[in-house]
Write a structure and sequence with these properties.
This protein has 383 residues and is α/β, with parallel strands linked by helices. The chain is built from eleven helices and 14 strands. Strands 2-1-3-4-5-11 form a six-stranded parallel sheet, sandwiched between helices. The longest helix has 25 residues. The N terminus is likely disordered.
Length: 383
C-alpha cells in the first residue's frame, strides 16, 4: 500500500471519529440541576394540658339551692375557658372522714385546683393540702388557710337582710320563722340580719328558730317549717340547702323565700323572693389566676352585693312598690358603701349591747357572732 493511500485511510478514520464524537455530544441530554432541599417544617408547639379542676359538694347538684349555685359557678368556668380546663365534681360528700378521702382522691387523679364548698371541709382540706404542696385548694366559708390553701365566702347576710325587709312588710302575724342548719357564726349572722331587716320596716317583729343540724335534709326541713307555721309564723326563711321550706309554705298557704338559688318554681304562690349567690365571678377569677400562674394561697375573700355575688331576685308581684324601692336602695347602698347593715345601736336578745350607736361592725365582729339580736327568741345551741 502506497503512502498516499495510508494517509487517506488515516484521514477518513480521524474524520469518522470526530463525527462520531460530535454525534454523541449532540445526542447527550443535559440533566437539570437538582432542586434545593426544603428545610424541614418546624414541629407545632405541643398544646398545653388543660387545667384539671375538681369540686367537692356537700349536697346533690339538684338541690335547687346551695350546691346548685356552686355547680352553676363550675359551669361558668367551662364557658369562660373552654378546652383550657377540665372540671369534675363529687356530690353528697359528708362533712366527715369521707371528705378527706374524696379530696385526697381528687388530688391523686391529677386535679391541681380543688374547691371544697362547705364549712365542714376545713380540717380535711388542711390535711390534704399539707401532703400536696403543688395542688391549689380553695375552701368555702372557712377561716383557716395554708400556703397552698385559701378561703372564699359570700356575704349571705346581705341577702338575708333584704329578705327581712320584705318579710317585715308582708307578715300579718308579726311572727317570722327560720329553719336553721348548723349553729355557726355564718348562720347566726343570717338569722340576725333577716330579723333586723324585718324590724327596719316593722318594729313589732319577732323571730322563731328551729335548728335541724344539717345542711341538706328535706324531711327534717319540712318538719321544722311545719312546726314554725303551727307556732304562728306566717313568713318563713331558711339557712338550709333544699327547697323544702318553700314547698311547705306553699302547701300550708304561707309565704317564704328561696335561698342560694332562685326557687320560684318550687312554690310560686308562696315565693316572696330569692336571696341568691352567684359564685361564677369568683370561680372565674380563681381559675384565671391558676392558669396565669398568679394564684396565691394563705388569703381569703368575702364578696357580696358590691362584687355581684349576692342579689335579691324574682320579688313577688304583690310586694308593695315602696318595699321594692327600699330593697333597690339597699342594693345601691351596699354597692357604693353608703349603707351598712350592722350599724349600732344593736343589742342582743337579753338587752346586752353588741354595737354602740353609729359603730359599724368590722368583719372580725361579723365572723364571731354567737348570740341572737333583739327580737329573736331563744338561745343559740351550744352557746
Amino acid at each position: 500500500m502506497t503512502d498516499l493511500k495510508k494517509r487517506s485511510l488515516l484521514k477518513v478514520a480521524a474524520l469518522s471519529a470526530v463525527a462520531a464524537a460530535a454525534l454523541v455530544g449532540c445526542g447527550k441530554k443535559e440533566e437539570p440541576a437538582p432542586a434545593p432541599v426544603a428545610a424541614p417544617a418546624a414541629a407545632p408547639a405541643p398544646k398545653p394540658e388543660p387545667l384539671k379542676i375538681a369540686f367537692a359538694y356537700v349536697g346533690p347538684v339538684g338541690d335547687g339551692g346551695w350546691t346548685f349555685a356552686h355547680d352553676n359557678g363550675r359551669k361558668a368556668i367551662e364557658k369562660e375557658f373552654g378546652d383550657k380546663v377540665v372540671t369534675s365534681f363529687v356530690e353528697k360528700v359528708p362533712e366527715s372522714a369521707d371528705a378527706e378521702r374524696v379530696i385526697r382522691d381528687m388530688a391523686a387523679q391529677g386535679n391541681t385546683l380543688i374547691f371544697g364548698t362547705t364549712f365542714g371541709y376545713m380540717e380535711p382540706m388542711l390535711k390534704v393540702a399539707a401532703d400536696n404542696p403543688n395542688v391549689k385548694f380553695e375552701h368555702a366559708t372557712g377561716y383557716k388557710t395554708a400556703p397552698n390553701m385559701r378561703t372564699y365566702d359570700s356575704r349571705t347576710y346581705e341577702g338575708a337582710y333584704m329578705a327581712g325587709v320584705i318579710a317585715g312588710k308582708m307578715t300579718k302575724s308579726n311572727t317570722l320563722g327560720v329553719v336553721a342548719s348548723i349553729p355557726i357564726p355564718e348562720v347566726v349572722r343570717n338569722i340576725n340580719s333577716f330579723t333586723m331587716g324585718a324590724q327596719s320596716v316593722n318594729p313589732k317583729i319577732k323571730t322563731k328558730v328551729v335548728w335541724v343540724n344539717e345542711w341538706f335534709n328535706p324531711p327534717k326541713e319540712t318538719e321544722a317549717a311545719t312546726s314554725l307555721i303551727n307556732g304562728g309564723a306566717d313568713v318563713l326563711f331558711q339557712n338550709t340547702d333544699s327547697s323544702a321550706v318553700l314547698q311547705t309554705a306553699e302547701k300550708m298557704n304561707k309565704r317564704a323565700f328561696g335561698w342560694d338559688s332562685d326557687m320560684t318554681a318550687y312554690g310560686p304562690k308562696a315565693h316572696l323572693g330569692s336571696a341568691i349567690i352567684n359564685w361564677g365571678p369568683y370561680y372565674v377569677k380563681a381559675t384565671r389566676e391558676a392558669l396565669e400562674g398568679k394564684w396565691t394561697g394563705g388569703t381569703g375573700v368575702w364578696w357580696g352585693v358590691k362584687e355581684g355575688a349576692i342579689d335579691m331576685v324574682s320579688v313577688a308581684a304583690d310586694v308593695p312598690d315602696d318595699i321594692k324601692k327600699r330593697v333597690d336602695e339597699i342594693k345601691a347602698g351596699l354597692k357604693d358603701g353608703s349603707f351598712a347593715i350592722w350599724k349600732g345601736p344593736i343589742t342582743d336578745n337579753t338587752g346586752k349591747e353588741l354595737l354602740a350607736k353609729d359603730v359599724v361592725a368590722d368583719d372580725k365582729f361579723l365572723g364571731g357572732l354567737k348570740t341572737y339580736v333583739k327580737g329573736v327568741e331563744g338561745k343559740v345551741p351550744g352557746n
